[in-house]
Amino acid sequence: MLDGLALAKRIGFTKIKLNAVAVKNLVEPDIVPLARYARENGFESLYRVHAARRAEALGSLQGTAGRRHDRDAFREISPLTRPDPDPRAPASEYVYEDGGGMVGSSRR
Question: Collapsing DSSP states into helix, strand and coil, what is residue 11?
């Protein structure tokens, strides 16, 4: 996966967004490193936070990480600001206060 992202960047793709599912107790340790990788490479990252029923259907009875947990994890990288939130938007998007990109989470 990382080789493909590096290739896309090298051949000129300018807006690359990483989408990942944030499943509690399964990928939580990977949330911050993936967000850090995205930030270091100029990619946006969006974490899908599925409802607990969806996680159970996928075989994970632990449920999913919550948006508050996501924000706290991302703040380990840099303070966050939420610019003009749109209540109709499917994702909560935040920008790093130091200008180093954006990160978001979605319930879809």
Answer: coil
Helix ranges, 60-106 (H): 67-75
> Tokens for 10?
């090298």
- pLDDT, residue 53, reads 45
Instruction: For residue 41, give both structure tokens.
Output: 């490479």
Residues of the chain where predicted confidence (pLDDT) is lower than 50 = 51-53, 55-56, 60-65
Q: What pLDDT, on the 0 to 100 scale, is given for residue 9?
A: 92
- How much is the pLDDT for 8? 94
Q: State the Cα–Cα distance between residues 48 and 99, nearest whole angstrom.
A: 23
Q: Is 86 exposed, middle or buried (0-12, 13-18, 19+ CB in 10 A)?
A: exposed
Place of tokens 């270091």: 40
106, two tokens = 């979605």
* pTM score, whole prediction: 0.68
What lies within 8 Å, CB to CB, of 88 at 6+ separation is none
d(CA 31, CA 76): 11
